[in-house]
Amino acid sequence: MPDRIALLPDAVAKQIAAGEVVQRPASVVKELLENAIDAEAKGVDLIIKDAGRTSVQVVDDGYGMSPADARLSFERHATSKIKTTADLFQIATQGFRGEALASIAAVAQVEMRTRTEGAETAAFLQMEGGELTAQKTIQAAKGTSIAVKKLFYNIPARRNFLKSDPIELRHSIDEFERIALAHPQVRFTLLSNGKELFRLASENLRQRIVHIFGKKMDEKLVPIEEETEIVKITGFIGKSDAARKKRGEQFFFANRRFIKAPYFNHAVLDAYEGLLTPGSYPSYFIFFEVDPQKIDINIHPTKTEVKFEDEKPIYSILRSSVRHALGMYNVTPSLDFSSNPDLEVGRSDTRTIRQPQIRVDPDFNPFAASPRHKGSSPSESQAWRDLYRESRSAATEGTRGEMDSAQADAAYMQVHKQYILVQTQNALLLIHQYRAHQRILYDTFLKSLRAARTLGQRLLFPVAIALNPSEVQSLDLLREDLCKLGFDFELKESTLNIGSAPSEIKPENIKTSLEKLLEQAQNHTASDPKLKEATALTLASQAAIRKGHTLTVAEMQSLVKALFARRENSFSPQGKRIYHKIALSEITRQFDR
Length: 593
Ligand code: ADP
Ligand code: MG
Fold this sequence. Notes:
Layout: H1 10-21, H2 25-38, E1 43-49, E2 55-60, H3 67-72, H4 100-106, E3 109-115, E4 122-128, E5 131-138, E6 143-149, H5 156-161, H6 165-182, E7 187-192, E8 195-200, H7 205-213, E9 221-227, E10 232-238, E11 250-254, E12 257-259, H8 262-271, E13 284-289, E14 295-296, E15 307-308, H9 311-328, H10 341-346, H11 378-395, E16 412-415, E17 419-424, E18 427-432, H12 433-450, E19 457-466, H13 469-485, E20 488-492, E21 495-501, H14 510-521, H15 531-543, H16 553-564, E22 579-583, H17 584-591
Parallel strand pairs: 1-7, 11-13
Antiparallel strand pairs: 1-2, 2-6, 3-4, 3-6, 4-5, 7-8, 9-10, 10-13, 11-12, 14-15, 16-17, 17-18, 18-22, 19-21, 20-21
Helix pairs in contact: 1-4, 2-6, 6-7, 8-9, 11-16, 12-13, 12-15, 12-16, 13-14, 14-15
Bound molecules: adenosine-5'-diphosphate (ADP) and magnesium ion (MG).
Adenosine-5'-diphosphate (ADP) is lined by residues 31, 35-36, 38-39, 60, 62-65, 73, 78-81, 95-102, 144.
């Protein structure tokens, strides 16, 4: 029998190893940003093109590399950060394996420009598929710029596994946010396809959080601080009434490194016990400082999981310090919010935890607006009743409902491509087009989910999506619901082929919509009663017309008609106001001054 075993060609071995470190553009973002931090940069620019498919570039003003180090940096196990096994237990830098640049260079085209403080010239290196293809001396500022182009150009299978641009970009932004939060003293910018998404000055943690997550965060943050022999805990937690419906703004850092820590998350949630409405999640930004010898960051190649030696005591310390912080700022009253409706109304600006309320304005009639039908004549209220009845059935078809020709002369105007202005008998209504449509679609989808199956629209060009293993699992969870909504699909190997989709979803949005559905399903179990609502919301949010989308009069009409045909028309599924009414009397008053 001939010998069977052969050594893998070097290039193949490198590609396999690279798979551990580089899963998607966001992995490149993470590694390059960490290297910039390790190089003691004070300012870091991240420039992304086409969600990282075309290029990811990081420019830092750190200590740079000599030409020889620059060349070595692409070798596997080349690192300036550890030299002995003992160093492994004292890691103070983000990286230490010396794997990232080698891995990235194996699966992309990389250009590096770097200069150290004292050097007169800078080094330029070009790598392709792990090989050095050019090296020269150039002029450049102190620091390092690394551009990673055409990621996975030599591994088409990997390239095909990438998700849609919005999802890939989101992953990169997540990495950016984690590192920017951990290093608020460092300046950062993020440019995506020429658009500046972030410009963060050197600042303190609170300012950094506010600059990343928005001004609304400011009044919601409560500092947390605790120092013991085994751990120092600092950071901020969100007040309980500011909890969000969506998981997300939850961050743990161990020695300035972002970590995932379900166990500690549990400690935090435990501290909030009784303060949160079901299905809402508190925000937190919590930093642990521990002796590097007492944590093992080495257990996972992408290093988001860590093992703490003193896990149990840290759990208790964390829980009590969160409780303490909540109590100190007097946000842990012993009141039960849900049993005190007044308190809820008083907190009406905490937009996420309150269930949308039904507010009915009995005088309200958006179609009484036509100047030809002034006053509330009997025929008009008849028309309204007719319309109401008709629009009820049209409502289920969203904006595609047949337009009611009798209403063609009502006054509609689109304002700044985001609001619909409707004149009513004694008021002006400004309707938020996205939220109105989101509400209509949400109700429609939820209805489909609670009914037997809905027939979708056959697609002219079937859509294929490559799924990763966890998405295949989510698919199992959602299978029945997807059919009910009108999706028709087949899973072959790990590719999902979609033949039909709900008619409310534009073909070009199908891929992203499904990806979002599968992504959010990962937060649920099959028996979770909230799964259907979450599914309807995700889909409605994807399919609703956005601001910037021009509407025809007919579209505005059917949208408004469908909106007011439903019981809940004041608030979006996320509890946000759908329309604003300006009474004629208010307008008159303005002119009487
Ligand atoms: P690690 O960070 O684990 O050491 P990397 O492959 O990420 O491994 O980087 C290899 C080496 O290249 C680093 O140890 C460092 O010496 C050098 N290096 C990488 N990026 C930079 C940078 N932006 N500035 C200065 N040196 C860098
Ligand atoms: Mg590194």
